[in-house]
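TICKET: design request
STATUS: open
ATTACHED STRUCTURE:
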């Protein structure tokens, strides 16, 4: 008798589509429960700036491959629906025993938004804040040498961009950033 096998399946889902994804995955797990040899399915969630990363651990009594899942029409249909949300097939890692925690490669990071969107978001965040800082700090630091003024502004602006400005901008524009165009 072979040892149980575990698959770690990782998907990256735009935040705006996470509820739809979770419903589809719950349906998929129900379909897995009807398959011989199914043991369990557990989901680990990790929220990133513009996507939710899901790692689903699926355990089977014996070795079964992801290609075998697609032979069941209802499972194939559900997987196709999930792939429409995620933009493609999930990352898979397979292991027996404790190998899952040590042997598999980390899944690739989710794709970044296009360069032009990242630049635009940076300008939207930086320009207004820089103008506010210049106007509000000039009475306080205006007599200092210009390189020192710029340094002080850069330190304040960098701190504000790290938190709270960029997290707020990313949350507000997240659905737009995660669109492929």
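STATUS: resolved
RESOLUTION: sequence designed for all positions
ATTACHED SEQUENCE:
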């Amino acid at each position: 008798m072979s040892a149980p096998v575990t698959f770690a399946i990782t998907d990256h889902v735009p935040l705006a589509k996470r509820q739809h994804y979770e419903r589809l995955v719950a349906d998929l797990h129900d379909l897995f429960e009807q398959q011989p040899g199914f043991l369990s399915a557990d989901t680990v969630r990790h929220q990133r700036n513009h996507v939710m990363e899901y790692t689903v651990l699926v355990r089977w009594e014996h070795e079964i491959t992801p290609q075998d899942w697609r032979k069941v029409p209802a499972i194939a249909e559900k997987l196709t629906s999930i792939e429409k949300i995620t933009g493609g097939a999930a990352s898979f890692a397979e292991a027996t025993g404790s190998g899952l925690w040590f042997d598999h490669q980390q899944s690739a990071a989710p794709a970044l938004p296009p360069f032009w969107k990242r630049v635009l978001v940076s300008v939207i965040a930086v320009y207004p804040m820089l103008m506010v800082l210049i106007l509000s700090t000039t009475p306080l630091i205006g007599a200092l040498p210009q390189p020192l003024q710029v340094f002080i502004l850069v330190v304040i602006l960098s701190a504000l961009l790290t938190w709270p400005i960029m997290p707020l901008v990313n949350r507000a524009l997240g659905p737009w950033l995660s669109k492929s165009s």
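CLOSING REMARK: The chain has five helices and four strands. Residues 98-109 have pLDDT under 50 and may be disordered.
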